[in-house]
Amino acid sequence: MSPPRESSKARKRASKGADVEPALKKARTLTKRKKAAVPRQEVVWTEYFHDLQKVFKALNTVLAFCSSRKHLATTFSVVRSSVEALLKQPLDLSKVAELKALLPDVIKFGYIPRDQLLIHSSSSASSSTRAPSPDFSLHPTPAEDAHVLVLDFLDSTRGTKPKNTNLALAPPPSLTPAAVRKLVEKRNERFALAVDELLQAVLEGEDPVLLLQAAARDHIPVNPSLSTKAPAAFSDAKGKGKAEVPAWEDRPSIDAIIQELEGEEWYKGQVVERRVFAAREGRTGALDPPLSETIRAALSSSRGISALYTHQVAAIAALAHGRDVIVSTSTASGKSVIYQVPILRYLEEDDAATAMLIYPTKALAQDQKGALEKLLGACSGLGHIKIATYDGDTPLEDRRAVRDTASVIFTNFDMLHTSILPHEDLWRRFLKNLKIVAVDELHYYSELFGSATISKPAEHMKNIFGLEDVEEITSDGAPSGRKDFLIWNPPPADPVDPNLGRQSSLAEATGLMRFLMKRGVRVILFCKIRKTCELAMKALRADLSSEGRLDVLNKVMSYRGGYSQEDRRKIERDAFSGHLLGIVATNALELGVDIGVLDTVIMLGFPMSIASFASPRQQAGRAGRRARDSLTVLVAQSLPIDQHYVLHPDELFEGGMRDLLLDLESKAIVEVHLQCAAHEMPLREEDERWFGPLTRELCETKLARDGDGWYHAHPKYLPFPAKHVNLRGVEEEKYVVVDVGRFGRDGGVGHIVEEVEVSRAMFELYEGGVFIHQGLTFMVQEVSHDSKLAKVIQSDVNWITEPRDFTFVLICHAIARSNEWFRNIDAVQTYRIREIRGSDHRAFFGRVELFTMVFGFFKVRNRKILDAVDLETPPWQRETTGAWIDVPKPVLELMRDKGINVAAAIHSATHAFLNRFAMGADLMTECKVPEKEYKVSKSSRKRPARLIFYDVPGKGGAVAAKAFDHVSDVLRDAEAAVDSCPCEEGCSSCVNSPSCKEGNVVSSKLGALLILKSVLKIPIDADLISDYYGDPDGTHQTIVEASHVRAVNGVEVEAATP
Known about the structure:
By secondary structure, the protein is an alpha/beta fold.
């Protein structure tokens, strides 16, 4: 084994006890102390290594200078001439390869596409308020190669930010002379350590020089323009070359693929946890009374079903006896058969019978509609039965025919609310003959239309439908194949220097996906947000093209919200038919759509809850849906919550599912639904059984009563109350993205790419920015905010853009004037004030304003800023309601004295509060940005010391008011959870939130505990906080004491709940 590999192993052993994510700033604990430096053992070097050290030092000096110049390309030809001038001798390629062999994770020495050195697109419109920065990178000529050799350090720093910047990110200036010296010294020490490790690892009788030279041969770069060699990472490195993708039936077993993967040269121990769950045989039962011969024949011919599983038998039998039923079994366990069979039975008895099937998504309804049509077509005597979809995509001219002729409709609660119930007279035929109502994916309807996995199915169904008796069926009789679960942690960028962080989790996830697809494994990659979905698709497109695997690329697509109806239907057809090898998706495909034969689910980053991970729950349950072996992989990101589960995997596999919640006591929610119900049919006090205990009060105070005692909708809601109530909140306006690349040429017309909600458009559509769709890049040419239109042109650029923006969450009013943002601040009136039990502090409820400004963007490549562009865009202002708690002044002073970052403490305390509030997922807060809170220089923007949480603008629901009402209980639960949690620096059980937009990087468990104790008036022993906890003078605080917010006249302090 070559010395560099021994060296790598030694480095891994040395770093085994290091922090999992040292690249992120960590919250400190009470007892943390500075560690003493461990002296390095003296090792005798030969003259050869002293000469090699001179080469390294010269190279180090040149690259340290280059790294501070962001537009200076570190091509080997440029670097070589400068190094040779220092050495006074030629720099041989083999010497650099030896350095690469010694420091494989530190030195970048290889070919890259020449166009990756470009930072401007010829097709982009110049829309910045200043001219683009000069471009000193290389520009190709027709005679030049397509690739260029680059030499650089992977730890290249770009200097500190100027002290007068107010930006969280900024284009970096040159390093100061002191910073250059420090960087050079650090790298020189790193080289010396690598040589020591090599010499210590060499066995007796071996020549370290010969071993190093032999290892260096593998690191001599090969020009891809002259070679077909594929990228090393996740490629078939054992000489297999390009192989045909095997048919799904012939693919290797998952176990065999994992073994092969772990034997690849690029594998670096990424699998940190593996769990295997054995296959399970199916259990069938017999129906009494049995199915008719025609139904049995239809099931056999259309679905291949010859027997029913035990849970299907139990549910169908219960329905036959008139029972209300809920079934909670694994994904793809045949739950749709449970309502399909009764529908066929009813129609056999009376072809006038009707059924309503309710789904949360259009894709899910389309999938199931096709399955039922096929089953009915195979059932003798029922071929004339009409099935129809009735949703927002149903043309207006077709809706009357659906009402008059359809026997089965596939719809959603939105249409039931806005179209069916308000026009009950038009639907009377259908409703009078209604025999069965099936609601699929019932767990979707929790909180304010959030999604979760169900733990108490019967209770949830009783609550949501107002039923008293529900039969719960949870024993799963369906078969299940063997399931492998992996936790995959990207390797460190350099095992010895943890400050460099880890390899890109996105590159690891897409690389693993490529590896699996080439072996015939059908994969779905789940991303938490849309942008990550598109970046993953972009990476797959680039890497598969580089490998020459267009056969695989042509069978990969992304799927997310925002795509046009035509694009969604095409992707769904390809997915359902099994044509696709890979899908990159957001949670738009989390629900139970049968997307064909899936073998593997890869989750990029910890999902929003444990319930979304553990089988057979939502995302993980997508794989192995047809009783074949399957694989689920969680690719951990560098965020604290991901790394927590890397260290504590049992919490993932053994964590229980949470209860689903319905807010049936919110006056705001109940009132609007009473208005709608009273318009459909007048109400009486007896209707309390359907609408809950608030019915009487709200009818008397909010509705209009007639002389006979019936309650009608209030006139202000007329003529159509349902139009005032959107089940999913206020629907956002959308920008239309149009590709105008062929407009006016050869008869070409503009093509609609997709529609983008205003809340996304502000951060994705700005002139000069890069918009990504299906992994393809488009340059934004023009944006009209008046007509909500964005014109784009497809352009093959090798960078992305990140908006430069800020959002203020205000409980005070900001008047924005040109060049005078936030200078006039008037207090907004507080609506309510409440005591906190056992404390003299108060909680407040009132109006919250959000003000967002996108003032520019960065061009980014490989997480490095290439350029900064200024923009002038209109601000985006929203208004909502929220609750807040001011942080007491004494604890602010205590944290400052001890060097605790106050912003981190407030951030963690707010998450701790929301973690303990049952409907916390429906509230938002101001997540702290690490680039701002951990800046080297002071920030001019100061925020008030408040825990603040607010309702999602436009969604309604008054959830913040509910949190305000229970503030004392929630605060005490949060304090107890943080105080008793055994973790050292915070986890999802105490102060970390899976939904934190900034990844919980700005975090302080100790600070959160101090704030919670202070608000609750629980004594704090300041002596327990170490004097060495931090450096108060070196900590830049961005938080100031909160000022009083004026209350409306007549507001009285409400007593705390007992």
